[in-house]
Fold this protein.
Amino acid sequence: MNKKNVFINTIGCQMNVYDSSQMAKLLKHKNYESVDSYTNADLIIVNTCAIREKAVQKVYSFLGRLSDLKKKNTRLKIVVAGCVAQQQGAKLIKRFPQIDIVLGTHAINQLPDLLSRIEDSSSPIVRIAFSEKIHETASPAISVTQKEKVSDFVTIMQGCDNYCTYCVVPYVRGREISRKPESIIKEIQMMVYSGLKEITLLGQNVNSYGVKEGLTSFPELLAMVNDIDGLERIRFVTSHPKDLSDQLIESFGKLNKVCNHIHLPVQSGSNHILTKMNRKYTREAYLEKIEKLRAVSPGIGITSDFIVGFPGETEQDFNDTLGLIETVQFDSVFAFEYSDRLEAPASRFSDKINSAVKRNRLQRLFTLQKEITKKKNQSLIGQTFSVLIEGESKNQLKNISTSETVELSGRTSENRIVNFDGSPEWVIDIESLKGETVNVEIVKAFSNSLFGVLLKSQIEHLKSEEGHFHVA
Ligand code: SAH
Ligand code: SF4
Ligand code: F3S
């Protein structure tokens, strides 16, 4: 069979990142090699996101660019997968006739079959039916074929039943369905076997894992994952505040591999807006959960998501949001201007906020959080953290590292990025540092990262255990 090249452009959340890697694994069996550029690809997949209008525009502009390419190379196949594929279906083909397959969010495992079908036919295929069952793309045979990254994702459940009034996810990912714990554990074991050290469990609301199916609860699943030999760190996203149980909060203290970080999207600090968003918790209930988390796990990294300019958001409501940010002192936050989604009920709410006000509120929110993050990061100077090394730092990769040395990057348990010089004279094999957990003392603080110094005394044990290091 001839070797072919596939280029996958992934837009959107970690779930899409996971789905893209599943597609790449499936395609490997059809002799497709993943490439980094679409110019000489035989197959281009764009895995799409519909969460905000900007994400959808990104998809359309990418698809627009592909039309010339297809004219030049008639053998090129184009697949649109993910949430915009699910949302738009056949409409996408009307707008972009160069598309060969529209692959909905429940159809990923059909990709190899559908590709065979379009080999000898020119009519495009649309697959957007929702299935009752979860797609289990990762058969063991598929998983072991590639060397895993140090840190990767695994989806433990798909869909969402929460229907926050602004959100498109329930309409494009379907109902909440949890994977069986045995299948998740098996997949992670396989990844660990191939080099993985840190797993992030993914779901729109991991806290309700298994509840609907009467399966293992999420804290029980965490305990099972914690028992996997060779795995060092466990993270999970996203936790919905309404379902954050005491049992889960206690897992932070009890399970040694669960990282000291929680992403707990609050969206707004105003009870009036939280009710309109259908979030089913109050500002007070949220603050109480934060206190409990900090009681169990002092120093826990806490991050959140915010939407500014939700329909009807007054200046007072927005000030409540700023007040909540002041009170909690998040480590960092993601914040977005509210974007109308046609399927979601909030698109029909009155009192829409104009874009200048939304932009202004977003700026004010970021200015406040920037100060908090800066203060927090500066307070870490002089402290030592255990850092799981993932690879070269972004500075190094972009060639803007100021030093002659090799700058490596990793994250602390609290999910803070730490860059450091990975090539002091006493380290002889930088490559083998990747995937190791080392102690780094923080010497500089920036707004999005920390810079540290690798502690020699702390990694000497690695030399005796693994023979990776030469210590002078
Ligand atoms: N399931 C996760 C969030 C998934 S979407 C949760 O419930 O927290 C990621 C983030 O996008 C959300 O937390 C929200 O802040 C933002 N978001 C979702 N819909 C949006 C919209 N219509 N406009 C602006 N931001 C939105
Ligand atoms: Fe969207 Fe709400 Fe579900 Fe998160 S919990 S995916 S914000 S509907
Ligand atoms: Fe986007 Fe779909 Fe994720 S809408 S945020 S890619 S679930």
Remarks:
- The chain has three domains: 4-127, 151-377, 384-471.
- Residues 12-13, 15-16, 49-51, 82-83, 168-169, 172-173 surround FE3-S4 cluster (ligand 3) (CB under 6 Å).
- The first strand starts at residue 4 and ends at 10.
- The mean pLDDT is 92.
